[in-house]
């Protein structure tokens, strides 16, 4: 079996070159024919390309020319677009600036209207306030047309100019005002600059109170003595009327003046204890001043005469001289002469006893004045505390807008402190003066007692 396989293998090796040679020739022949066909087709394609190349080149050139024209148009359109965008931006900026100017003018005119409204005289409120309020409302309304806004602002300016023109030489116009008795009366207003007079149809007249309220309130001048003159002026018949150059401030100050009792009454309940202490202290001070300044004083040189009599051994004369000395000093010298023959230490104790006995009589009631000087400010402080408590209680009820409702507590807080200091300062001065005078008298007694003891010692030593 193996031999057969070997034989077949050898035969295959020998027959393979012959078969390869035959196949190669066939392949070469086929390739040659295909090459010729390809060359032929290439030649045909070249001819076709050459035939179509010129029209295509012309079409290409035409397309490039159109493209260049389109690019020129595109560049021109881009430049136009850029210029238009720049113009639009400039226009928008200009429009925005003009809008800001318009808003500024509207706000400025509205502010002018608010200022005009705040400066209106109470008698002019009914005449001008509606125009001012319409101007303010228009400035704050975002949906209102600009032309209407400008029309309302222009109305404010026109009204203000007309008002200035009418006031330049005085103005007279009808209206109603509240008289001092609280009655609303019709009449005639007469305006001269910032001052306005009113003459009612009932005969009552006066000047319009400035700043009190938006309603015109009449203040009578000099208790009605100028009512007829103001009425004559309203009838356009000349008259002489008073003019307050302080714009009613002088009248307001005059209205705030009060008597002493009214001032005390405003201080509340704690003023009365302070005034009671002040009255008692004043009485005590007057009494002590009279008592201290009326204490009898011995004549000058009486002590030397007494010591001279004791030195000469004439005790009776010394006693007679001591009896002539008045007051506490005389009693002290009488005790000294009486016990002059005893030991000097004993005499010193007896004289000191006389001084001690006199001291309470001289110093009595003076501490009450000192207590008044200390207590009066404390009572004033107590009144201040209660007044502030009342003020805060009223703030809870009325708030801080009503000054008149708060004035009672504030008056009580300040007036009690005022009276406390008014009482304390003079009391302290009186106490210092009287106590100094009393101590001066006691010091004089003490000096005379020392001089008497020293004289006795010198007599004993001799």
Strand-helix topology:
Elements: H1 2-118, H2 125-140, H3 146-167, E1 171-178, E2 184-192, E3 195-200, E4 205-208, E5 218-219, H4 227-234, H5 249-256, H6 260-266, H7 271-293, H8 302-311, H9 315-324, H10 327-338, H11 344-363, H12 366-398, H13 403-461
Antiparallel strand pairs: 1-2, 2-3, 3-4, 4-5
Helix pairs in contact: 1-2, 1-3, 2-3, 7-12, 7-13, 8-9, 8-13, 9-10, 10-11, 10-13, 11-13, 12-13
Your description of this structure?
- By secondary structure, the chain is α+β, with helices and mostly antiparallel strands.
- Among the domains are: 169-254, no CATH class; 271-461, no CATH class.
- Helix content is 75%, strand content 6%.
- It is built from 13 helices and 5 strands.
- It has a 5-stranded antiparallel beta sheet, with helices on one face.
- The longest helix has 117 residues, at 2-118.
- The N and C termini lie far apart (195 Å).
Major beta sheet, strand line-up: 1-2-3-4-5
Q: Roughly how much helix do the residues carry, as a percent range?
A: over 70%
Structural class, from helix and strand content?
Answer: alpha+beta
Q: Regarding quaternary structure, how should these chains be classified?
A: single chain
Overall 3D shape:
elongated
Write down how many β-strands occur, each being a DSSP E stretch of 2 or more residues: 5
| First-last Cα distance | 195 Å
- Stretches with pLDDT under 50, minimum 5 residues: 9-18
Proportion of strand residues: 5-15%
Q: What is the averaged pLDDT score? A: 80
Q: H/E series, N to C?
A: HHHEEEEEHHHHHHHHHH
Radius of gyration: 62 Å
Summarize the biggest pleated sheet.
5 strands, antiparallel
* Count of helix runs: 13
């Amino acid at each position: 079996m193996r031999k057969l396989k070997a034989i077949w293998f050898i035969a295959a090796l020998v027959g393979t070159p012959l078969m390869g040679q035959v196949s190669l020739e066939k392949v070469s022949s086929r390739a040659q024919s295909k090459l010729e066909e390809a060359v032929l087709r290439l030649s045909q394609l070249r001819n076709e390309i050459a035939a179509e190349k010129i029209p295509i080149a012309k079409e290409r050139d035409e397309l490039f020319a159109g493209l260049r024209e389109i690019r020129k148009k595109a560049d021109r359109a881009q430049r136009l677009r850029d210029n238009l965008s720049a113009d639009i931006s400039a226009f928008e900026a200009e429009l925005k600036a003009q809008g800001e100017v318009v808003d500024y003018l509207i706000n400025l005119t509205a502010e002018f209207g608010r200022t005009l409204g705040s400066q209106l005289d109470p008698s002019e409120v009914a005449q001008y306030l509606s125009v001012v309020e319409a101007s303010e409302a228009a400035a704050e309304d975002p949906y209102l047309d600009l032309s209407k806004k400008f029309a309302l602002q222009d109305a404010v300016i026109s009204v203000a100019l007309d008002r200035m023109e009418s006031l330049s030489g005085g103005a007279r116009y009808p209206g109603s005002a509240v008289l001092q008795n609280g009655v609303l009366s019709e009449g005639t207003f007469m305006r001269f600059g910032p001052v306005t007079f009113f003459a009612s149809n009932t005969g009552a007249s006066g000047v319009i109170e400035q700043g009190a309220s938006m309603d015109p309130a009449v203040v009578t001048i000099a208790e009605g003595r100028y009512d007829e003159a103001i009425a004559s002026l309203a009838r356009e018949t000349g008259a002489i009327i008073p003019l307050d150059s302080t714009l009613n401030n002088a009248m307001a100050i005059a209205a705030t003046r009060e008597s002493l009792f009214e001032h005390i009454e405003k201080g509340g309940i704690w003023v009365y204890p302070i005034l009671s202490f002040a009255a008692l202290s004043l009485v005590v001070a007057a009494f002590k001043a009279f008592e201290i300044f009326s204490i009898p004083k011995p004549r000058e040189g009486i002590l030397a005469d007494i010591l001279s009599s004791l030195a000469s051994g004439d005790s009776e004369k010394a006693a007679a001289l001591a009896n002539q000395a008045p007051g506490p000093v005389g009693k002290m010298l009488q005790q000294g002469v009486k016990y002059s023959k005893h030991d000097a230490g004993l005499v010193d104790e007896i004289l000191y006893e006389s001084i001690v006995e006199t001291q309470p009589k001289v110093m009595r009631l003076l501490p009450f004045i000192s207590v008044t000087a200390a207590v009066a400010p404390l009572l004033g402080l107590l009144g201040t505390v209660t007044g502030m408590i009342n003020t805060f209680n009223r703030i809870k009820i009325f708030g801080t807008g009503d000054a008149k409702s708060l004035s009672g507590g504030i008056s009580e807080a300040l007036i009690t402190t005022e009276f406390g200091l008014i009482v304390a300062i003079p009391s302290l001065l009186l106490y210092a003066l009287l106590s100094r005078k009393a101590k001066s008298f006691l010091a004089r007694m003490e000096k005379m007692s020392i001089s008497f003891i020293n004289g006795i010692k010198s007599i004993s030593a001799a």
